[in-house]
Amino acid sequence: MKVFLIGANGQIGQRLAGLFQQDGTHTVRAMVRKEEQKEALQAAGTEAVTANLEGSAEDIAKAAQGCDAVVFAAGSGGSTGYDKTLLIDLDGAAKAIEAAKSAGIDRFVMISALQAHNRENWNESLKPYYAAKHYADKILEASGLTYTIIRPGGLLNDPGTGMVAAAADLERGSISRDDVAQTVLASLDEPNTHGKAFDLTAGGTPIKEALKQL
């Protein structure tokens, strides 16, 4: 499977790019915004293209041509305003979904946020961010694509353990970015994740087993 990785320069995206190289099960084409980011990835042995989530869906579709799956790991980041949250986390995700359909790509894995599906559980200070994730997920669920939506808890830079909790609803919790990336990789090969959305935190179950139990 050839995977089109959107957001390859982000913290989870960088981990994923490395994992795809190490794993060898899939190949990857990384999408980044800047030429210097593309050059850095290529120097590390990863195929990369430049395209912008604030550009057109057509440009994203062209960049994704020939791929078999899309992984959306992009995010506006904590240092930007809510205008960028709207443009990247919501509209950018919507464009990526449009682009996948236009490019004939059926498989789509989305990284969302813990409890994005439950408005009553949104963090008061981050409501615009959760709203963007909520509606991006809804667009994907209605798209007709073979989707998986992964909603991780608070993201940590601790080393991954390979052990998680995954379920339709989980209490507040955290998880290492390493384990989120490993879960994305495992989800691509696990049919039980097709058409499912789930919360993800640190836990006591090996990742592949947790996905089979969803």
Structural descriptors:
11 strands, 214 residues, Rossmann fold, alpha/beta, NAD(P)-bd_dom, Sugar epimerase, NAD(P)-bd_dom_sf, globular
Describe the structure.
With 214 residues, this protein is of the alpha/beta class. It has a single domain, classed as NAD(P)-binding Rossmann-like Domain (Rossmann fold, 3-Layer(aba) Sandwich). It has helices spanning 11-23, 35-43, 57-64, 82-102, 127-141, 177-188, 207-212, and strands at 2-6, 27-32, 47-50, 69-72, 107-111, 146-152, 154-156, 163-167, 174-176, 196-202, 205-206. Helix 3 packs across helix 4 (82-102). The longest helix is centred in the middle third of the chain and has 21 residues, at 82-102. It comes from Bacillus nakamurai. Residues 7-191 form the NAD(P)-binding domain. InterPro entries: NAD(P)-bd_dom, NAD(P)-bd_dom_sf. Pfam families: NAD_binding_10 (PF13460).
| E-strand count | 11
**How many discrete domains?**
1
- Rounded to the nearest angstrom, the radius of gyration is 16 Å
Strands in their spatial order, largest beta sheet: 3-2-1-4-5-6-10-8-11
Summarize the structure.
With 214 residues, the chain is α/β, with parallel strands linked by helices. The protein contains 7 helices and 11 strands. InterPro entries: NAD(P)-bd_dom, NAD(P)-bd_dom_sf.
Topology:
Elements: E1 2-6, H1 11-23, E2 27-32, H2 35-43, E3 47-50, H3 57-64, E4 69-72, H4 82-102, E5 107-111, H5 127-141, E6 146-152, E7 154-156, E8 163-167, E9 174-176, H6 177-188, E10 196-202, E11 205-206, H7 207-212
Parallel strand pairs: 1-2, 1-4, 2-3, 4-5, 5-6, 6-10, 7-9
Antiparallel strand pairs: 8-10, 8-11
Helix pairs in contact: 1-6, 3-4, 4-5
InterPro entries: NAD(P)-bd_dom, NAD(P)-bd_dom_sf
Domain NAD(P)-binding: 7-191
Protein name: Sugar epimerase
